[in-house]
Amino acid sequence: LRDTAGEVVGVNVVCQEITDQANTEVALREADRRKDEFLAMLAHELRNPLAPMRNGLEILQRVPGDSPIAARTRDMMGRQITHMVRLIDDLLDVSRIRQGKLSLQRRPVPVREVIDAALEASQPLMDGAQHRLTVSLPDEPLVVDADPTRLAQVLSNLLNNAAKYTPDGGQIHLSADAQGDEVRVRIADNGVGIPPGMLPHVFDLFTQVGHHAQRAQGGLGIGLSLARRLVTLHGGCLRAESAGPDQGSTFTITLPRLTDAARAAG
Ligand code: ADP
């Protein structure tokens, strides 16, 4: 700040603002770090009681002479525990990624192998809703440098969503192909679709489209955020398309393709 004669009359206010801004940034980073730590601790605490509960159910399964209603109740409890474990594991994974603590166990892996594992993991949900699932894969081997467990987790998450957000009897199509030096995996459904305004946000943590029928499906809005973070860790990208409500949705993963030449050079 200068007076009319050009004399510097003060710099304090400017310095103060910069300091405030720097302080705010440090405080925000610290708050973020504490939030991540809390999230991780919460997830651990919530997960701990689930292991003995699951073991207890397994023991009950072996008790002879169960009545049909007891068996049905036990199965329902088993499904709910599995659902909770999945939600909490997703939460733990997100906090691990945010803290830079999630490492991938990568190896050259055929995409077909990953797809088979994902289909197996998603089978119960698919069967329950009676969707028509079609799969088309090329004859040529498509190999990627990936952590097969993590990639199967991403695909199974997208398949579960396709089943969740597609009314009974709907159609789900999974396909993979090569696009130049990339492998593309797509999961398309003809379900409830996504409004155009929400498309850029479905990958944000804790974001749900909020449609009434969809909220009835539960969930926390973690799955897609986690899926995108995992695909990004693999050097790929995950995007969503939908022509709008009731027009279905398509999720596309692209990953660098591992060709024979790249492997020989690698
Ligand atoms: P959740 O399913 O637990 O709500 P996700 O992160 O997996 O969380 O998904 C975020 C939101 O994106 C969902 O709440 C849903 O509104 C929307 N969504 C995800 N997949 C689909 C799909 N296949 N069709 C329509 N909407 C979808």
Automatic annotation (TrEMBL):
Q: Which domain of life is it from?
A: Bacteria
Domain (Histidine kinase): residue spans on this chain: 41-259
Compartmental location: Cell inner membrane
The protein here is known as: histidine kinase
